[in-house]
Amino acid sequence: MEFPLLNTLLLCSALAFCPSLVRSDVSGTDLPDFGDSSGSLISPTQELEFGEAFMRSVRAQATLVSDPDLTRYIRRLGDRLVANSDAPNYPFTFFIVQDPSVNAFAGPGGYIGIHTGLILAARNESELAGVMAHEIAHVTQRHLLRAYEAANQLSLPTAAATIAAILLGVATNSDAGIAAASAIQAGSIQYQLNFTRANEKEADRIGIQTLGRSGIDPFGMPSFFERLYQSTRLYGVANIPEFLSTHPVTTDRIAESMQRAEQQGRGKELDSLEFQLERARLAVLLADDASAVLQEYKALAAKSSAGPADHYGLALANWRNGASDSARSELLKLMKSDPDRILYRTTLAQVLQDSGQQKEALALYQDTLNLYPGDLVVGQYYAAALLQAGKAEQARDLAREMVRDEQARTPAVYQLWAKAASVSGPPWETNRASAELYYLNGDVPLAVDQLEQALRHSDVSRYDQERIQARLEEFRQILAERAKK
Ligand SMILES: [Zn+2]
Questions:
Q1: What is the model's pLDDT at position 283?
Q2: pTM here?
Q3: How far apart are CA 413 and CA 433, in angstroms?
């Protein structure tokens, strides 16, 4: 049985640093100006490059959740909020970090990371959306400029790696791949990454507006903050949720955001079935003890108040415990009342494939792709299933088709393409796909190596040669930039 989520090791969650709860407000009253110390601005192109380098560092340093359904959910929620933010055209990217601490962060270039611990701690969609809207506001209000200033003192890749390490909480871990940055540099950037109290209040205020405009209950933010705050009083400062250590919450701040929420008015969406389903998915797939989580969902689904998410969780837990028949019948029941839901369909197809009903599984994927043409999540599952069924040619076609869409250019899809090409394509195509995979995972030297290998093959068409050459130049430039410092 294959769980993309579980294939990767859990990242060590020991928090390497713990900034003090209350940050001084020295530079908080004056908003950062748009220039660095030498008076030059960070250009949109630089910002974009910085963001991409940051994301590569994140991929190299953390375990990201690659589960296509969960990834899609968090992106959709993020996009909905961005569309109603102050910068609807800014290119945000949302991703999930496999880390049990309750945390979320905004990195350069609009890369917003949400920890699995935070999704599990949120009780409804508006609580999760509240934190996301808050992080979006840090970006739209340019609160990250101080980090950019700090980055100007280092080379871009070093700054990106350092900031990633700090935000992921692995700053003092010597294995984190930030050897290039001295502890002092990391320390000074750490200081500059901490938002001021004025920043925090502004992010609350703007975030609540975004929630209201998105039609999501604005009380999600203050109620979640309050719950986190209460939990620290209950469990002590040692067990403080990570989010609070970087986002100090006070009774004053909660009261203020309550007032702001009041202004937005009630009567908006508090929750969604999708959130509850995805959260159940996360809870079951991440659970250390498969049989315990099955017992838990058996109890939940037996309650009179049980909803679809409880039954979906039960189906998944059954599947994790090898009870495919029970999983299948549970999913079929869910599909009876909600036949077009992609999550039910892809989960059922996975269960079918796992229990040897390959033909039925492939047919269900194809049917779902017909229902949702070009759907990336379905495509990804389908390509993997085709590969598993020995239909590498078809998988390769599908993967190549998918990466035409920028959204599909993820490590998972390139990995599928590389695998499929290694079975059914020319060898250079495997090199080409692997190069993108290495690049996205932050290993540029290996990416270069792959493209150099690709060019050594004699059967590469002129057109492909040119494209590979151009990409190779881009990678080499990144390496040259890195070597500067
Ligand atoms: Zn904040």
A1: 96
A2: 0.80
A3: 9
